Amino acid sequence: MTHDRNETDVSARRADKAGWIWLSLAAVAVVVILGLMFAMAFSGGESAVAYDDDVEDMPVENVLDRPECPVPGEGSGESLAEGAPLAGVMLPCLGADQQGEIDLGAALAGQPAVVNFWAWNCAPCREEMPMLQQWSEANPDIQLVGVQQSTSPGRGAAFLDDVGVPLRSYQDTDDVVGPVLGLPKVVPITVIFDAEGNARSILPTYFTSIEEIDQAVAEALA
Question: What pTM did the predictor assign?
């Protein structure tokens, strides 16, 4: 009887120990889940989204014709500042291959510029672009251009056509500009340059109103 009782006590203690282990694991899981929910809830609704520039494994595409991009000499004649980050950075124009490779820094020199980095598979970009276009039409003294951060120029041109904006956009298939400016791998990003080609503000977020764009540009160029 004593032997049976001892075995029963040991079994009970083991069961209690196992129960505490499972209870502890469950508590840890609850804390982790609550932490993730908290982070998601307070991360903000205007953050840019991560992009993967290797997601498209596509053959050569048909690319819709798009407006030609700015080229060197279209500005007011001011030269680039010494050390301007985009000096000598060469990109083609999306949907306007006849222009060849364009020196992006020289093309933007001469007047302030708002450069919007986007991708065809970016949902916030679709919401933001019409506002950027509307803002640009009200501010013709500041250039607005895009740079598509994607390996799919065909989908990029089709995206712009579908959104219905005449945005002049360069095509950065090999992610040339991102490392030069130290951009995070998210889209959209808006970079504001002064007339001498200096990057005055890098904004890895997306705008939800024209007033936000006005404020960002005014602060960057003040």
Answer: 0.74
